[in-house]
Design brief:
Layout lengths: L3 E7 L4 H10 L3 E7 L2 E8 L1 H8 L9 E5 L5 E10 L6 E8 L6 E10 L10 E4 L3 E6 L8 E4 L8 E3 L10 E2 L6 E6 L1 H7 L39 E2 L8
Parallel strand pairs: 1-4, 2-6, 5-14, 7-10
Antiparallel strand pairs: 1-3, 2-3, 4-5, 5-6, 7-9, 8-13, 9-12, 11-13
């Protein structure tokens, strides 16, 4: 597997002043950490990070983090912050992984086809739009797909019914409902609320021991909008 490479330099200056100086130099503050890696303050190029976030795997892309004066380490993007107005990247956290150990990430679930139950008045309700999975870094899928064409009224898609790539495990109970064709009477009883916020949907948790953040190419230096990213807080606490 070919790793994406990001160059990094050690960072000594802390606080808002240090962060401003870094950004003036075309870099942003970052932190790398892991179970076997003490937190280290570094600086990286936002342009290189945008290229990773905008790639097919997004934040699930294994990265070779080449830190000046230190050994390279393999990481995933754990979290990043961006300016709520300019959308410029402000800070990123990397978490160390190992290529020979399983990681835990979230990947999108895409339903394909038109359920036959829709012609009978049903509505397709997708409970999970991202699924927590575990696999080796080299096996992380871009997405998981499931054909729902044969679903009739009140039929469901469960974890056990998915066809998964070799080496990929979904970290949900086998009987967990992922999607269903709901009849009019049940829609009225349950009310609205499909999507990731529906009851039973998991909280976002995709760290190695960690869905793709937003798709679409972003212009250099601009981060795409992504559910996993957060706008910067008023305080610059991570600098």
């Amino acid at each position: 597997m070919e790793l994406r490479k990001i160059e990094a330099t050690p960072r000594t200056a802390a606080g808002k002043g240090g962060a401003r100086r870094l950004r003036a130099e075309g870099k942003i503050p970052a932190v790398a950490y892991g179970a076997e890696l003490a937190p280290e303050s570094i600086a990286v190029s936002p342009r290189e990070l945008v290229e990773v976030i905008s790639s097919e795997l997004g934040r699930n892309t294994p990265i070779e983090l080449a830190v000046e004066g230190a050994a390279s380490r393999t990481v995933l993007v754990r979290e990043y912050q961006y300016h709520p107005v300019s959308r410029e990247l402000l800070h990123v956290d990397f978490m160390q992984i190992h290529l020979d150990r399983a990681v835990e990430v979230e990947v999108p679930l895409e339903l394909t086809g038109k359920p036959q139950g829709i012609a009978k008045g049903g509505t397709l309700r997708q409970v999970y739009r991202k699924l927590p999975v575990a696999c080796l870094p080299s096996l992380i899928p871009v997405k998981l797909t499931h054909d729902v064409t044969e679903l009739d009224l009140d039929d469901t898609v469960t974890t056990a019914g998915l066809s998964l790539p070799a080496g990929v495990v979904v970290r949900l109970p086998p009987a967990q409902t992922l999607a269903a064709v709901v009849s009019e009477s049940k829609r009225g009883a349950e009310g609205e609320g499909e999507g990731e916020g529906a009851p039973g949907a998991p909280a976002a948790a995709a760290a190695p021991a960690d869905a793709k953040a937003a798709a679409g190419k972003a212009p250099a230096g601009k981060a795409p909008a992504a559910a996993a990213a957060k706008p910067a807080a008023k305080s610059d606490k991570k600098k």
